[in-house]
Amino acid sequence: MQEKLYFYYTNDLHSNFKQWPRVANFLKEAKTAKEAASESCWICDIGDHVDRVHPIAEAFMGKANVQLMNELNYDLATIGNNEGITISHHDLFHLYDEANFQVLCANLHSLDGVMPKWLHSSTVIQSDQGVKIGVLGLTAPFNDYYELLEWHVSDPYETLEKNIVELKKSVDVIVLLSHLGINEDQEIARRFNDIDVIIGGHTHHLLRTGEWINNTLITAAGKHCSFVGEVILTWDHFDKKIINKEAYATDISHVPKDLQTVQMQEELEQSANKILGKRVVYIDEPIKVKWFQHTQIMQQLTNKIRNWTDADCAMLNSGLLLDELPKGIVTYKDVHRICPHPINPCVVELNGAELIEVIRASFTKEFTELKLKGFGFRGEVIGRMVFSGVDVVTDFYDNGQEYVLDVTINEKHLDPEKIYTVATADTFTFGRLLPEIAKSKIKDYFVPEFIRDLLAETLRENYGS
């Protein structure tokens, strides 16, 4: 006798709620069909469901996301870095208090030793005909952030070493919910033959029909839930083993919206608007925002981050602010609207030579016009860099390209060997946007504050009335 085991999953929604009613319709129909056929079916999320870029996620600190998942009868979830490091310790500790699904993350630990009641390393689920499936969850170890928030994420490989052998003793199948990224998933598949399926996320990779490494099937469904993933395992009860594994990612862009979910989201958005409607300041004149020109508001914000972090100098890109603020009352919703990024302030140490290279690179057309996606940035382009505490003199080539002539601090040229503290957006500590910043050995992140929190303070201090 054979039995099919179905897993439907979402990953990296990032609070893209415009897509969520389609997800709801797809999952409801899939689960109804499987239940009608008396087939075992589970719905999972692989993390980064929450992203404070959306007002609903911002207002409810992710709890509305959990509510939406409850409505679709999710069974299992792990957490992503957007759940883990973009909200305070207290908010994460209570994020899943009302979850009707099991939250699995074997490598997340609270540094005070008090663990949330909802957090489990693994669980064992059972099919209608008795197949026992062990499910574990893992998340990416961004400990530079986690430890500032009183959490620690242990090494995923060491965590698997401790859990897989013991879990294997009591289950027939092992499934890993991995918010680690494609490279880590592939390496895990090479090292751990007992893992049957890795359902992945984090790096937004799309594997339409999965990928095989040794005996492990790896799968993931891209980002923003444009696709919903499905895993089908066929278990042979006579031979007591899996005889087939399949993985699919289905494009749901043309799936009709679930109207009940649409209505629920509208109600949540109305509530979010009330929560975020708190007055920040009244401004007598519109505040203009320009991505490729120096503006007063960006200068004031850059001054603020330098003073707030007590750094020698600061630099922020103008693309952080997405829109101007009209005359009148400015609410926190307005602040969130024009600065939605989950980006934290950060201070790095650079010597004078490195700082000059960073400043020069920031004036290139390739940098200012880069349409950045990821690293916390939720805008359109990087835009012009604005500086505080450092004086930058520039000129223009005949082709219109701006270039740096001179850089001074307190009327003194930068000492190539001297170490300077530089406050900026944590975006630039990742990837290769500004290599000198990314390679800095000293990076002090400020959490849980976002750049927009400093923007609100900047508005109060400079325009308060």
From TrEMBL:
Gene3D superfamilies xrefs: 3.60.21.10, 5'-Nucleotidase, C-terminal domain
Ranges for domain Calcineurin-like phosphoesterase: 8-205
Sequence ranges assigned to domain 5'-Nucleotidase C-terminal in this UniProt record: 289-427
CDD domains the record matches: MPP_UshA_N_like
InterPro entries linked to this entry: 5'-Nucleotdase_C, 5'-Nucleotdase_C_sf, 5_nucleotidase/apyrase, Calcineurin-like_PHP, Metallo-depent_PP-like, Pesterase_YunD
Keywords: Hydrolase, Nucleotide-binding, Signal
Entry's family note: Belongs to the 5'-nucleotidase family.
PANTHER family linked to this entry: 5'-NUCLEOTIDASE (PTHR11575:SF24), 5'-NUCLEOTIDASE-RELATED (PTHR11575)
Entry protein name: Bifunctional metallophosphatase/5'-nucleotidase
